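pasting input
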Amino acid sequence: MAPPAKAITSPVPDAWYPTLAVFMLAIGLVLTASFFIYEATSSKRNRSLAKELTTGGVASVFLGFGSLFLLLSAGVYV
Amino acid sequence: MESFRFCFLMLTIAILASPALSDLVLSKVDRRIYLTSHIVRISSTVKVENAGPEKESKVLLAFPEQQAKNMAYLMATPHEGKGKVKNPVVALPVEAANPKDMPAALTFYSVSLPKGLAEGDSFTFDVLAVFTHALRPIPEQITQADIQLVLYQDSAHYLSPYAVKVQSLSVKLPDSRIESYTKLENTKIHGSEIKYGPYENLPSFSYSPIAVHFESNLPFSVAQELVREIEISHWGNVQVTEHYKLIHGGAQSKGEFSRLDFLARPNVRGASAFRYLVANLPPRAHSVYYRDEIGNISTSHLRGDSKKTELLIEPRYPMFGGWRTAFTIGYGLPLQDFLYESDGKRFLNITFSSPMVELVIDALIVKVVLPEGSSDISVAAPFPVEQWQETKISHLDIDGRPVVVLKKTNVVPEHNQFFQVYYHFSQLSMLREPLMLISGFLFFFVACIVYMHADISISKSSASYLAKQQWEEVQAVIQQVQNIISRCLTTHDNLEASLHDLSRTGNIQACKAARKAADGLLKELSKELKPLLTFLQSSPSAAQVFPKVEELVAKERELQEKVMVKHSTVVDGYEKKLGARDIENRVALQQQKLTALRQEVDDLLELIDEI
């Protein structure tokens, strides 16, 4: 311990976890809803795969981080 | 009887080994034996003097075998006089030694002095030896109402391979109730303290057995096994989980246990039992829990300040001699208090042993669970430990987390020192868990897309299947038609907007350009519309919806013409420099028709949507 040891903290302050979880999950769920609305309303022939994949991809990024922060705020430190 | 035989043996040895080992002489030895807990601590202050011509740098400490096997901890420090400012003491190195021509019944440790002793020099140091299971309960079995008596045996003379000039011994007991003790010359008793000595000029290996039989109702809490699991999460937590298998290590309880007696007079009917345990957790500990196999145990108290968090737990029943209990406590600690980084390596700096007060641990297993993706793991412990590595599969893991397992037997509170686990960890590895969650969700979305795109009907030639296929095609075409119509409508809106601009700025050229662009666009759109309409006309499934679509297209065309007419009228008006009121009058009728038509088109669009 002779060289100055630097304390390691988490990349995101613990206190933000609940807020982040709520907002990211909300955004993720809205995107999921829009994904399914698109799936259900557009007809099979003129559905664009790119649009489906982008909506799904962005929604899964938000849902993924949202559920991670939900786990962390619930005390399940992964 | 055993001790007498041992004594005889020692005397024989003393005679045989009379030529002294070296020219060292212990000029003064003060020993204090603390029996105030079930952990026996012997603290000795030793002044060593070199009487011979040769330089000496090592001093031997001797312990009889029966003591040595119970020894948990041995530390030597340079002696500091009373009243001095306490500097951080640096322990003198102590190692097991095997000197020649020494009796086999003794275990030796050698203390290295900071500098060699020349002739006539002296050095004073303190030795702290800690023993477990050194108090023998006699009687071995007691009832609930009995008090617990224990026996301690040692020597009144300091057992040493060197001659001792002056020595004294004091034995501190928890209570003044003493059943019996060995009376020698110069034995004094002051309340709960027995003093032997001073004795002068005793030869090497002198031994004089003493036994103290006294009352001790202190908690004999012994953890037969303790598994501590320290799990690091770089998301901000160090989770400690401790699984205890506890036993009351005192006199065995016999006869029946009466809860009523115990509750009525707990100090008499249950003096030997212990009811609670205290754990001093680190400060800022959070999410503390205390449970066993059945579930949560509600009898616990927690209070914390800035220095420590004190947890008081009560087992489910009072612990009598020989009774066992198993429970788990767990707590979370803030990451920044225990995890550090230096030279590109991260290290955990945390205490080794249990936070419980005055607990003997027969077998302690410390598992340090590092995050997935850690490598180059090394451990720095202040005392020798057995160690090996494992992996543990936990939340959101692929190939498991590396676990360093440290094992040590016979652990006392003195072992509660900091140890370090060094490892390499890339910050990017933290993204593993979120990426796993993200890919999970993405997989779900992809599955939905595949399901919606896949054709999973079995009979591809049945009439209903074909009809469905056709209907889907029609639907797609109608959607395209709707798209085109709505684009037409936006173009109309744009034209209206250009008129509005005209009334504001009077720029006729811009307005004309806008009209030209809109004209081109509308023509293109109607071109696009043509093949779709022919398709709808030919398709049998579109029979129902086609008239509506046709009507829609017709209405739209009418609307288009009207808009164009209105646009040219207004532009003409501006060119002829007519007043705004005049222009308005001219287009008023057209405007009404336009609004009506627009309404009809919107209605039709909605109607088609419903079909």
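fyi Helices of chain B lie at 2-16, 65-68, 259-264, 432-453, 463-505, 508-538, 546-575, 580-610.
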